[in-house]
Amino acid sequence: MKDIFKFAFILGLIALSAGGLLAAVNAVTAPRIAAQAGLEEEAALKGLQPEAAVFTPVLKGDTVFFYKAYDKNDKLLSVLFKAAGKGYSGMIETMVCMDVQAKIKAIKVLSQNETPGLGSKVAEGSFTGRFSGVDAARVSGVQAITGATISSRAVSSSIALKAAEVREALRNGK
What is the mean pLDDT of residues 75-93? Predict the structure, then answer.
């Protein structure tokens, strides 16, 4: 019985040490991870709307709801927003550029964990290019990737839902 308490104490010390070490590593790396995510988002914005001089965030609460892209003459070029949907293997997050007539200009897949060679094709230009010029209200009609219907529909439906929310916000003067 004495040995059980001894081993439990040693195991407890190991668990406490490991937990403390993980917390310390997280505290050190969290700001760098957040900064890198911000840089990647900025690169995605500039990649989807290169003519823009300024991206102005529109907040919903304390999070960014969407961005308004303005040219150097302060003319609204487009709105950009993130959309996320549940694919076959996990969440698929996209950045979408929609013009002022509510037509999709371009999309970029920011993150996905779909099956390599199948669902992961949602990140390829052959799929993302299908959205260009499509009315935001009709993105569900974009042809899915054969064998990756769940992943394709996740992208389409998430864009359709978020585009509707953004269009409603724009109509309400945001």
Answer: 94
Max distance between CA atoms of the chain, in angstroms, equals 79
pTM for this predicted structure: 0.80
Domain, as residue range, for 1: 1-48
Q: Same domain, yes or no, for 105 and 123?
A: yes
> What is the domain count for the chain?
2
How far apart are the C-alpha atoms of 91 and 66, rounded to whole Å?
A: 19
- What number is the average pLDDT over the span 95-122? 91
Residues 6+ apart with CB under 8 A from 48: 80, 95, 96, 97, 105, 106, 107, 108
Three-state DSSP state, 96: strand
Claim to verify: residue 117 and residue 35 sit in the same structural domain: no
Residue 137, pLDDT > 90, answer: no
Sheet of strand 91-99: strand arrangement: 54-60, 63-70, 76-86, 91-99, 104-111
Mark whether 74 and 159 lie in a shared domain.
yes
CB-CB contact of 98 with 80 (8 Å):
yes
